UniProtKB/TrEMBL annotation:
Coiled coil: none annotated. SUPFAM superfamilies: N-acetylmuramoyl-L-alanine amidase-like, PGBD-like. This is N-acetylmuramoyl-L-alanine amidase. Belongs to the N-acetylmuramoyl-L-alanine amidase 2 family. Keywords: Cell wall biogenesis/degradation, Hydrolase, Signal. PROSITE patterns: PROKAR_LIPOPROTEIN. The keyword Hydrolase applies. It comes from the Bacteria. Residues 37-183 form the N-acetylmuramoyl-L-alanine amidase domain. Residues 22-42 are annotated as: Disordered.
Length: 296
């Protein structure tokens, strides 16, 4: 009996010793000098990524890759151009991991949120942009393969971070006084039909046109109000000042690319109203973040 007791004691001691070596539970992580217990994840949290911002590079493939991988700007993804063999293989470059900031948006604003590099994924697409002719700007066309590739990539990103359609934007939407990319030939409507980004309903546009011709004069004040409600950083002056005109141009490049002269016409007014009705029916003019986080 004594021996049995001794053996039991040995087992007990060994057992105790073993418990200290047993693997840690999943919600406990060891670090040098401290432990982290993640047993109580808070309900009050959301994704840091809120926006998807699309660009063109205004450079060829080699130059785009060099600028974005070795220069002072970057993007999470680079979609190759028409001349690249990667395009036929449906391959995009990832230049920055999605949990890191890429430097693509610069000084930027949407619905009162600024510094959008902090909260966005950036996709750069190889396209030369435009060349100036004597009369106007000549825009380089997009390759359908690029658009299909952007669509597949964007769809995944949108799903991963639950990005709402009105937060899929062009660089010119968030920096209308500085940028024109991805330009008026970018097929936003086609992408919206593929489930990527926002597009107004034509019946609602007709409703807000209220019998006016599309190129009738519109109300600058209404356009300023509705563009601000939708998300643009636009002055509320009631007059077509330079900033207002540039912002209307950015809006038109996205939603009414047949004429992006910055004119405050009736169709522009109706499109802006239709977008607000569809995506932000309850919004006020927003100069501050509408979703400011609670803090303690
Ligand atoms: Zn850009």
């Amino acid at each position: 009996m004594k021996n049995i007791a001794l053996i039991a004691l040995i087992f007990f001691i060994t057992g105790c010793a073993n418990t200290t070596d047993s693997p840690q539970p999943d919600n406990q992580a060891s670090h040098p000098g401290y432990q982290v217990n993640s047993q109580h994840p808070s309900q009050s949290q959301s994704e840091r990524v809120r926006f998807l911002i699309l660009h063109y590079t205004a450079a060829n493939d080699a130059e785009s890759l060099r600028l974005l991988s070795q220069g002072t700007v970057s993007a999470h993804y680079l979609v190759p151009g028409t001349g690249s063999p990667l395009l036929n293989q449906s391959t995009v470059y990832q230049l920055v991991a999605e949990d890191k900031r890429a430097w693509h948006a610069g000084v930027s604003e949407w619905r009162g949120r600024t510094h959008l590099n902090d909260s966005s994924i950036g996709i750069e697409i190889v396209n030369l942009g435009y060349k100036k002719s004597s009369k106007s700007l000549e825009w380089y066309p997009w390759d359908g393969r690029q658009i299909n590739l952007v669509a597949r990539l964007a769809r995944d990103i949108i799903k991963r971070y639950d990005i709402t359609p009105d937060r899929v934007l062009g660089h010119s939407d968030v920096a209308p006084t500085r940028k024109v990319d991805p330009g008026p030939l970018f097929p936003w409507q086609q992408l919206a039909e593929m489930g990527i980004g926002a597009w107004p309903d034509s019946s609602t546009i007709r409703h807000y046109l209220a019998g006016r011709a599309p190129d009738d004069r519109g109300s600058v004040r209404n356009i300023q109000i509705d563009l601000a409600r939708y998300g643009y950083a636009i002055p509320q002056t009631g007059i077509l000042d330079a900033l207002t005109q540039q912002t209307i141009t950015a809006f038109q490049m996205h939603f009414r690319p047949s004429d992006y002269s910055g004119k405050a016409d009736a169709e522009t007014e109706a499109i802006a109203a239709a977008l607000v009705a569809k995506y932000h029916p309850d919004s006020q003019i927003l100069r501050h973040p509408p979703e400011s986080d609670m803090d303690i």
